[in-house]
Write a structure and sequence with these properties.
mainly alpha; 0% strand
Length: 55
């Protein structure tokens, strides 16, 4: 059931993607293929320091 899947689908909520997988609108193979096409933007990540205040 290989259908053309729009890359915009990856911008949607995970629950919608899960539902499309369950209903057959999207296959695991199609999702995997779309995820592989995403660019690596990890260089844009910024570390945010976090401190836990203990009482």
């Amino acid at each position: 059931m290989s259908r053309r899947v729009n890359a915009e689908l990856l911008k949607t909520d995970r629950r919608i993607i899960s539902r499309k997988l369950l209903t057959g609108e999207l296959s695991e193979k199609d999702l995997s293929s779309l995820l592989k096409k995403l660019p690596d933007v990890s260089d844009n990540a910024e570390e945010i320091p976090f401190q836990v205040n203990e009482k």
